[in-house]
Amino acid sequence: MQAITISANAWSDAGHAVNHLYDMLYMMGRDDIPVGVGGDGGISYAGDVQRDVGGYLPLIDQGMSTDGGCRYRQAIPLSGRLDVDTNSGVRKGFLPRGSRAYRPLRQPTAQRVMADALSAGPTSVLLLGTHTNLALLLMSRPRLRRNVERVYVSGGAVRAAGNLFTAAAANPVAEFNVFGDPFAAYLVLHSGVPITMIPLDATNTIPVTEAFYSEFQRRQRTYEAQYCLLSLDGALARQRRRSDSHDNTGFYLWDPFAVGVAISSMRHGDGETSNEFAELEYMNVTVVTSNKPYGARDDGSNPFFDGRTTPKFGLREGGVHSGHVETGIRDPFCLVPGSNRGRCQDGYTKEVAGPEAVQMLVATRARPNTNKSSPLDKKFMETFLEVLNLPQNTGRFNISTQFPYYREVLYKPDSIMNVTRRGGKPKPVVFDMDMSPGDFVSLICLLKEPRHEIDLKAVLVNGNGWANSASIDIVYDVLHMMGRDDIPVGLGNATALGSPTLGCNNSYAIPQGSGGFVDSDTLYGLARSLPRSPRRFISDDLDHPERRHPSAFDVWRSVRKQLGPGQKITALTSGPLTNLASIISLSDMDAGSVIERVYVVGGVVRDGGDDRGNVFTVPSNRYAEFNMFLDPLAAKTVLESGLNITLIPLNVQRKVSSFEGVLGALKQHTQHTPESKLVRRLLLLLQQLQREQRKFYHHMDIFLGEVLGAVYMVQGSNLEPSVEVKSICIVANTTESINGLILVKKSAKPVDVLYSLNTGAYYDHLANSLVNHKQSAPIGSFGEQKAIWSRPQKHLGTDIAKDRK
């Protein structure tokens, strides 16, 4: 194994995937293997391919940045990506943690790692995802093609039906890996490199049967075998179905089988009869990249041709790439009235004759097991379990055996809740966040406030803002660090209100590379320094419904039940308003009766001024702010609901978005807490990235301004604020250029708008709160946690003995 690169435009998200791989390699003692992911290069309008294109987008949609839509990726359920990013919770619960981690601008890119590996000499390439990374390499470094000995492709469906279970109504013939970027697959298969394809035709013949599962349970002698079985358990828990034909669980050994076929070919040769695991035959195949009639488009579906004087990449008008290109899983062109089988064939690995045909070896079925005494009917299944349990090159430990005194401890505060504040009980607060870096600073600030004043009852997160849903595990880690494992975390929607559950409405505006998802999903590389919480996301298990992860509404309902007589909830939102809008308009129509006030961080109020928005990836939209733009209908629902609302718009956020102001206030203190050190380290990093790489990190002050919401909600009049009542309305679900726009209109609902404050008092309070040793973190970092787990422990209870008053 020379190197691993990650497909960043399919079933996993880059930041979560790279750290997952680092942990697996650490378990296996292979920290020597480089891992490449992403990159911030682009492809120019003229078709010039830069050397570090990240592969976040399919080639047909790749421009000069990493933001963009999800033409093909929308076929993958967002819940599926969450399950893969977390491995259904198994990843965090089992894998050890080493020293390697994603770091902004230091992480090796996919192109760099792949180029280094191929430059060393003849190399075999296994493609277990989309073909984007290899296609980009062959386009930008064509000389390296001669070093590609053979490409083994896991994917395609030649004579079998496709597997786009979410999109068969538009495309019944494609397979996910090829469909994720059909043009990239076309380039790889037509590159002249020898190809062996292991399509659904073959993998459909190697289902996970009950007999295999039982045998797998019996053979658990290594850590890697245990991890693979737990991973399989997670997959099967989500896919409980049976087939009378072969006691089929509905799950197949797709990629493992492809790897087995590839290894056997490397050892025994690439002939039709030499492979020990699969029957292979030569076929003439191509990849369909557009639909007939060719050259007759008038719908803007094909950026290679539409709106251009000359086709991109020198493609030929009227050729096989010049037809209609599927725009999404509900593309009207693809749907056939009265039928559940569509007519589009994008990504179809089709047998053809003539100049488009590429001869390649294709696996057609798994070979039977010749060991008649085995309960397993396929040769590969037998070998798979044998290899996983070999004592050679085995895993060294899991997280519980990595440390001699490992224990999972839940930190919870003492009974200070019995203390009442002056004038009554503590104020119940619910914090709704989209897990941007600023939101984590806000969360820490809320946790630092005296509990007899502010009682943070719950955290709600959504996955349609600046981080993917799997980043909920970072929330758990921050709460663990702060000794608040008692606070429930509810997982909200991953799509905007009223939008299809499959898609990326408006979130396409967030970069996927530097300064975007890959950084937020890793807390800019700092997530790995946090102590590891015993709590984590766990996928739904039909056999154990009690393990279901709580939704945002589940948590809201629980908080509401806990309210005492006369108590009402104060809500702080610091992301798209999806969760709160869903609660008040769909799930709990009477929620307004228990909401005292909502503090909304976001929006731009243009009241005779020319304040601009911050949606920098959509130049046509000059006046929207991201939290409003990402879900304008939710913003409209909340802000026009008649609730008591205080709006903290971008106008005033910009007045406290000075890194120098916050860092200067922190520098005045000589004694620090673990949380102040973490915040300082994060802000210093964001400041450094903004200074040194403005192209990708010019917007870092957006996150700093978000913290104002938490501080103002607590401090209020102490910040000498200027607040005005304005009647506002939101432009929602119209055109991209005005979505999220806030208009001042006399006939609209009135809200309080924060316009200014004493910035010096703000910075001082923020710093003073963070360095206050009361309610400080009982465990400050993963390094501290490792030290605890490495020595005998006298006593660890579930309550914190520290002064949390």
TrEMBL record:
It comes from the Eukaryota. InterPro entries: Inosine/uridine_hydrolase_dom (IPR001910), Ribo_hydro-like (IPR036452). Residues 3-292, 429-762 form the Inosine/uridine-preferring nucleoside hydrolase domain. One of its GO terms (molecular function) is hydrolase activity, hydrolyzing N-glycosyl compounds. SUPFAM superfamilies: Nucleoside hydrolase (SSF53590). Pfam families: IU_nuc_hydro. Belongs to the IUNH family. This is Inosine/uridine-preferring nucleoside hydrolase domain-containing protein. It comes from Zea mays (Maize).
